[in-house]
Amino acid sequence: MRALRAFTVVVLGLGLIAAACGGGGSSESPAQAKAKITTAWQNFFDPAIPVTQKKNIIENYNALLPILNQQSSNPQAQAIKAKVDDVTLSGDKQATVRYDIVNSKDGTALLPNASGTALKVGDNWVVSQQTFCQLVKLSDQNAKCP
């Protein structure tokens, strides 16, 4: 009986240790998360990257696909990029991104010190739908964005 109790205590203890060490949680460091967010953000706003390659870097890709396709042929959208200035993590599933929208040709800031949200969806950090839609509405107040 004592052996069974001791075995149970050991198994429960190991389970608690595994849970505390992140069993099932994120294993990326804050620096890794910030680097992934920066890359996702810059790739999303890069007009040279096709819309089909942005599936894992924008929240709700399928619902936004018509707008993404429309923006990919918009001359204004083709002329901008994002330059990430800072990423502030809010837990392991959300971050605030401070960035500049810049002219893709000469790097001139067109919308300096903008702020948006990055979300962790599955294993990917993505630009939030809300952030994207806010930018779309800046260029066209009547634009429909889910």
Describe this structure in words.
Helices cover about 40% and strands about 25% of the residues. The protein has a single domain (about 30-140), classed as Nuclear Transport Factor 2, Chain: A (Roll). Strands 1-2-3-4 form a 4-stranded antiparallel sheet. It has helices at about 1-20, 30-45, 60-70, 75-80, 130-140; strands spanning about 80-90, 95-105, 110-120, 125.
Question: Quick check: average pLDDT?
Answer: 84
Q: Helix- and strand-based class?
A: alpha+beta
Using the CA coordinates, give the radius of gyration. Answer: 21 Å
The shape is globular
CATH fold type: Nuclear Transport Factor 2, Chain: A
Strand order of the largest sheet: 1-2-3-4
Total domains:
1
CATH class group: Alpha Beta
Write the layout of secondary structure elements.
Blueprint: H1 2-20, H2 30-44, H3 61-72, H4 75-78, E1 80-89, E2 94-103, E3 109-121, E4 124-127, H5 129-139
Antiparallel strand pairs: 1-2, 2-3, 3-4
Summarize the structure.
The protein is built from five helices and four strands, in the order ααααββββα.
